[in-house]
Design brief:
Layout (H helix, E strand, L loop, with lengths): L2 E4 L12 H9 L8 E5 H7 L3 E3 L3 H8 E9 L5 E7 L4 E3 L12 E3 L5 H16 L4 E10 L2 E12 L25 H13 L7 E5 L29 H15 L4
Length: 254
């Protein structure tokens, strides 16, 4: 049976706070071997002091951007940029967050979410004496679907995939490509109990102990699809513009 619940009593996290201690105090003696903690990236970033001075959020987004995938301007003039950040994550605004931050600042994603997750998992294992895994989650949109869900951007001591390739289904047919991203599924499940504005940034998932493993397991960076296998590398309008420009250039010398 899968159980998911949010931890109560974690205070507002500030730069330099010991997040391991805050989570351990909130969890008390309730954690067991095989539990997985899903921690919102915002509190990880806050504890790591990932604030930057930026009166203009757009400037901070530009600095965090490696590649613009797509950009759209709404009727009101608001510009939305879907970009690849330095972490390899494709997301709106490169994960730069201006909500609940001191005036004149924005909050960046953790410098290395996998390292952050491993450090939290190691610290909680040592402090509480239980073998737990940690997922650092952030909210992402989805191509072709409205709305957002939480997904894993960091993982420590957790198998991020459940590889079923080579097994068979209930009818005996071979599974060729089936490889659920369980880290994303757990992050999304945890968000159902954390909620967005409830002040509960950490959830515990119990019932998938087989996913908890050594701290040197591949992290969430392994979820990011390599560029050579990316079938949707560029937004539709951007791809059209690039193709049009290439076609015009190729015919210019005729």
């Amino acid at each position: 049976m899968l159980q998911v619940w949010a931890l109560e009593g974690i205070p507002e996290v500030r730069a330099g706070d010991d997040l391991v201690a805050l989570i351990a105090d909130a969890a008390g003696p309730t954690l067991e071997d095989g539990d997985i903690l899903v921690v919102t990236s915002k509190v990880v970033s806050k504890s790591e002091g990932r604030f930057v001075i930026a009166d203009d959020r757009e400037d901070a987004i530009t600095r965090e951007t490696v590649r613009v995938v797509a950009s759209r301007t709404s009727e009101s003039g608001h510009v939305t940029r879907i970009v690849e950040s330095r972490l390899g994550i494709i997301a709106a605004a490169a994960g730069v967050d201006a909500s609940n931050t001191p005036h004149g600042t924005v909050l960046l994603l953790p410098d290395d979410p996998d390292a952050s997750a491993r450090a939290l998992a190691a610290g909680l294992r040592e402090r509480l004496g239980v073998r737990v895994g940690v997922i650092v989650s952030d909210t992402l949109g989805r191509a072709w679907r409205e709305g957002q869900t939480d997904a894993a951007i960091g993982a420590g001591g957790v198998h991020v995939f459940e590889d079923l390739r080579g097994q068979t289904d209930a009818e005996g047919r071979p599974l060729v490509v089936t490889m659920p991203c369980v880290a994303d599924e757990l992050a999304s499940a945890a968000d159902l109990v954390k909620r967005k504005a409830a002040g509960r940034p950490v959830a515990v998932v119990r019932g998938r102990a087989e996913l908890v493993g050594d701290l040197d397991l591949p992290g969430a960076r392994s979820i990011v699809r390599p560029a050579e296998r990316d079938m949707f590398h560029t937004g539709a309008a951007e791809a059209y513009a690039a193709g049009y420009a290439a076609g015009a250039a190729s015919g210019a010398g005729r």
